[in-house]
Amino acid sequence: MKGKGKANDEKVKQFRWSKPMERVLLEILADEASKGNKPSSIFKPSSIARVVDTINERFGGGCEPDHVENHLKTVKSNWKTIQSVRGKSGFNWDDKLKMVIAGKNEFDQYVTVHPTHEKYLNKMIDMYEEMALVVGRDMATGSFAKQFKDIDVTKVDSSPVDLGDDFDELMKGSKTSSSTVPSEKRSHKRRRCSDMDDKYATLSTQIGEMASAMKSLNQTAAQYHKISNEVMKAEYSKLYNEVMKVDGHDELTLGSVFDYLVDNEKIANAFMVKNANLQKAWIDKFVSNGGHK
Predict the structure, then answer these.
(1) Is residue 60 classed exposed, middle or buried when 0-12, 13-18 and 19+ CB atoms within 10 A define those classes?
(2) Which of these, 79, 82, 101, 83, lies nearest to 92 by C-alpha position?
(3) Can you tell me the distance from the alpha carbon of 93 to that of 220, in angstroms, rounded to the nearest whole number?
(4) Judging by beta carbons within 10 Å of its beta carbon (0-12, 13-18, 19+), is residue 287 exposed, middle or buried?
(5) What residues does the Myb/SANT-like domain cover (predicted)?
(6) N or C: where does the chain have the smaller number of CB atoms within 10 Å of the terminal CB?
(7) Which is nearest to 121 in space by CA: 92, 144, 156, 149?
(8) Residuewise pLDDT in 10s, the chain (293 residues)
């Protein structure tokens, strides 16, 4: 029995998963989960069979249920890593782009310790929503404010500063000449003024700390927008190049195709994983339908 189990493990390892295969797996199982075919943490056999049949049909034979079950373990491990990276102090989460935002210093420090996690930083995480349905639970908040939850401005003491009961009296001034005030009273006033100077100094320090925290927040927000724009520009550039490589259509027509895909993210993602023949077939159909899917 032990030898048989080892043979089965080796058989599972022989099947190689490509990125397009994994996309198919996640798309199908996300659909199955949304239909209620994942009653617990395990999919129904019919759901696994659907993945096997589709992969064998699209990519050739060789995929078996054990291969799907085994690869789900890999996907689950990746999901746990993503959630761990996402929760690190100093990192921010963009729910729209599905991307962990890290500043240069934080990025360099983290990747030095965890080089294999670099692919999850400052890059759109492909199939994030599908993974959430298949192997995890979507924890995205979509709140811009929560993206900066790790910037702790609460360290600044916001409690009111007690300036003492004599503050108003000091502001009004004394009508009595200092020459006529007994030395004990003048000494008391000097101590009182000294105490107030200390309180003003404390207040000034607190205001400075608050200003520093706000400056840090603004810098992080600016950095976030810069990285987001760079990522979006890179993604659009990839899509544009893929569209423009298709033969048989003029530049103006392909430009219209590109604009349509930019406005339809899911269709664009599907277009990007197709091979050249399927991309051309999709564009031909799109154009023949007058610019409609």
Answers:
(1) exposed
(2) 101
(3) 12
(4) middle
(5) 16-110
(6) N
(7) 92
(8) 445 555 445 544 579 999 999 999 999 999 999 998 888 888 999 999 999 999 999 998 899 999 999 999 999 999 999 999 999 988 999 988 899 999 989 999 999 999 999 999 999 999 999 999 999 863 333 333 333 334 343 443 444 444 455 445 544 554 444 445 555 555 655 666 666 667 767 777 778 777 766 665 666 666 656 666 666 777 788 888 888 888 888 888 888 888 888 888 888 888 888 888 888 898 888 888 876 65
